[in-house]
Amino acid sequence: MESSCENARKYSNNVSLQELRDSLAGFAEYRGWDQYHSPRNLLLALVGEVGGLSEIFQWKGEVAKGLPNWSSDEKEHLEEELSDVLIYLIRLADVCGLDLGQAALAKIVKNAKKYPVAANQTT
């Protein structure tokens, strides 16, 4: 079986949630981790990773879009923490049998109805 790292290198810059889900499922299966990936355990791991992400911003005050004043090391650290959050979120949705991409699109439609654009707003 190919390692997940080797599979990850094959993906384009436009990786899909399905590709990530499949890669993560293979990664966990190959290592025998499925037994530990209960919804509860994955949720708790996700919460821990969100805490790690929060620590990055904790003492920075307001941060400009694009992070113009951040070093490349700080941006890399942020990428890693964001990736950890995404990985656990995708894995949790998969273990729960949910299609995260479809759920997100449905939520966007629901929010558009709940928060319509006012007549005087321009896009």
From TrEMBL:
It comes from the Eukaryota. Pfam families: MazG-like (PF12643). The keyword Hydrolase applies. Its cofactor is Mg(2+). Its EC number is 3.6.1.12. Keywords: Cytoplasm, Hydrolase, Magnesium, Metal-binding. The keyword Metal-binding applies. Coiled coil: none annotated. It is an enzyme of class 3 (hydrolase). It catalyses: dCTP + H2O = dCMP + diphosphate + H(+). SUPFAM superfamilies: all-alpha NTP pyrophosphatases. It is found in: Cytoplasm, Cytosol. Its main location: cytoplasm. Homotetramer. Hydrolyzes deoxynucleoside triphosphates (dNTPs) to the corresponding nucleoside monophosphates. Has a strong preference for dCTP and its analogs including 5-iodo-dCTP and 5-methyl-dCTP for which it may even have a higher efficiency. May protect DNA or RNA against the incorporation of these genotoxic nucleotide analogs through their catabolism. This is dCTP pyrophosphatase 1. It comes from Hevea brasiliensis (Para rubber tree).
